[in-house]
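sorry for the late reply, my laptop died twice this morning and i had to redo everyting from scratch. anyway the thing you sent over, i finally got around to it. pasting the sequence first so we're on the same page, its 239 residues, then the predicted structure underneath. double check i copied it right bc i was rushing
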Amino acid sequence: MVLDDPPPQEIICPDAGNCPVTNHLPELRFQTVSAGRKWFRVYDAKWGYDEHNRGFGNTRFAPIDDPVAGVRLPSMYLGATQAAVLLETVFRGVGEQEPRVIYQRHLRGQLMAHVEVPAPVALADLRNPELRRMGIERRQIVSSDEEHYPCTRRLAIAALGQSGGQTAAGLIWHSRQAELNGLPPEEVVVLYGTPRFNSERGLWGWFGPGALSLYDGPGRLIVDEVAERIGAVVEDEGD
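ok and here's the structure:
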């Protein structure tokens, strides 16, 4: 199968006169996550559980090009808890909509992987305590709306550029979706692949059940538990 090349990165603000995103990142601190650290990932069953996105889509910190190598960086998003990764994927946007509903058909083919980081990785720290230290408000980088994703992607490039060469391989922050749903801070990560971090398939280990379907069985029970926590419902319409 021939795969298309990713389109050029988009990092130009669409509304520079009213942009809430900061123009400058102070000196960041980097946290090294040890090998074996446990994370959760929601992914489409068409792809591998540890397969990075090749550089498509429109998210807060991806897709971007490496500031040193100049190549498109593969990426994957991870959550420190099951709730975090579900809020950032299947429940994304529920905190800003009424009624607070997702549809069961959107869970078909969606899996939750329980994975272990295969090697130490340095992450630029954008969690709440670090933002306060730097004098940056959450809305200026980690909780701006989708319109300004090009701006936050530009900051991700700047963060990687601060790391000195190709040391840092991602960012860690507190989930906007948890904030919108009135939950305590939840850690989420974007991890960039080769040349920042080896993105060869088959390197990541499993823990617990490995992978769960979100459509039915134990995985669906987890979805229903999170839905109850945030006052949302999963409906069968069109399934």
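The mean pLDDT is 92.
thats about all i looked at so far, will dig more tmrw
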